[in-house]
Each structure stands twice: as C-alpha cells, then as structure tokens.
Hints:
Layout: H1 6-17, H2 22-29, H3 33-46, H4 49-52, H5 70-81, H6 85-95, H7 99-163, H8 166-179
Amino acid sequence: MMKYSAAFKAKMVQKMLGGRSAHSLAGEVGVAQPTLSKWLRDAGSLRTVKQRGPYEKAKTEGRRPDDWTAEEKLEAVLEAKRLSGSELGEFLRRRGLHEEQLRHWQETSDAAALESLRGRKATGKSAEAKRVKELERELRRKEKALAEAAALLVLRKKAEALWGDEDASMEWKADDESST
Length: 180
C-alpha cells in the first residue's frame, strides 16, 4: 500500500472540489479512483459547519435540496437548529431551502432516532427474553431428570423390600453353586 503525503492528498482534494472528477484525475496522477473519492469524502466529513462559517454553502451548492444525501440534510437541520429569526431566514435563502422542507427533515431525523432507540430496546429485551426461555427450558429438563431419578430410587427400594437385598441373594446363590 502506497502512502501519500497530506499535502498531496489536499492538492488532489482541491482539484476535485474545483470541478475535476475523481475518474479523470485518477488517470492523470496514477492514483486509483476509489482512493481519490475516499480522500474527497474524508475531507468533506472533516470540514464541519463551524469551520465553514454560518451561511457558507456546503457541498450541496448547485443541487436541489431533494437531491441532497441524508447526511447533508441532517447537517442542514443541525445547523438551522442553532439559528433563530432573521439568521434562519438568511440561512434558508442561501441554501435554497424552504422552512417546510427543513421541518420535514427534522421530523424524519427525529423519527429515525426514536426508531433506532426502540430497536435497541427491543433487541435488548428480546435477547433477555430468549435467555430466560432458554434457562426455563433447561430447568424443566433437569426437573424431569430429577423426577425420573427419584422414581427409580423409589422403585429400587420397593424391589429390595419385596425380594430382599439383591446382593445378599446373589452371594447366597454363588455359595449354593460352589457347594454342589
């Protein structure tokens, strides 16, 4: 695996941000297209809203809000939460958003977060319930085995009571046979 310097990576990211595709750049510089695309994604995730400034357009510039990725929509929702009044209005205009879109995205993200929490809770409960059922099944099996062992002991005692001590009778038969 070849290591590239941070300066080289930054230069390639700048070229891609300037409009060059990762595919065309890959052919020119000899770096695989997936590697270049990863560098671009990594650079985008490192550049937070705080680094960009409050109203600077993100990588969504020139695209309709309906074409944004879920990550971009969530980023817009989070950024808008920090604003109020005229700041929010200016933010919406600069990003090409409508307040209703932003509200819809907020509801969607809230629902997804709640669903995720429910899923974790349900998974936890079902795992616990599964373990409880497994332990109950094992307990029933052991109770049956114990009852069977107890029944065999009772039968053995009854048999000994009816026919006497089996070991003693065996010794008596052996003595009988050796004497004849």
